[in-house]
């Protein structure tokens, strides 16, 4: 794994070389139910369609009471998937809906040894100052773990 990070406060960038064909990595990203399996959210029976929202309960222990809500922005088969969400929206007593969202973009590049997956989450500079640093910290660590999760997931076949 080769996680890389930008020093910017507005964006988190991670990348990993996955020893799997691009079609396999794409399926792990674009099939909502499969995405949920490695990401830790129940998107059972849901689909990622540009312009549509998808909700599912978090399955990560201790966070099962939370619902992940994403607005799918772009779907370009085997190349790009992006969605918007409210980062680190973990306090059920807070209504995050008035806040700006961040954009999460997954980009796939075929390389000799497999598929290079790059994840960029941008827009943190627009998050309210009181939450910005914590949201950035939580999501930065979260994306590192998610790179490990997808690597294990696609290795299973």
From TrEMBL:
<comment type="similarity">
    <text>Belongs to the AHA1 family.</text>
</comment>
<protein>
    <submittedName>
        <fullName>SRPBCC family protein</fullName>
    </submittedName>
</protein>
<dbReference type="InterPro" id="IPR023393">
    <property type="entry name" value="START-like_dom_sf"/>
</dbReference>
<dbReference type="InterPro" id="IPR013538">
    <property type="entry name" value="ASHA1/2-like_C"/>
</dbReference>
<feature type="domain" description="Activator of Hsp90 ATPase homologue 1/2-like C-terminal">
    <location>
        <begin position="19"/>
        <end position="154"/>
    </location>
</feature>
<dbReference type="Pfam" id="PF08327">
    <property type="entry name" value="AHSA1"/>
</dbReference>
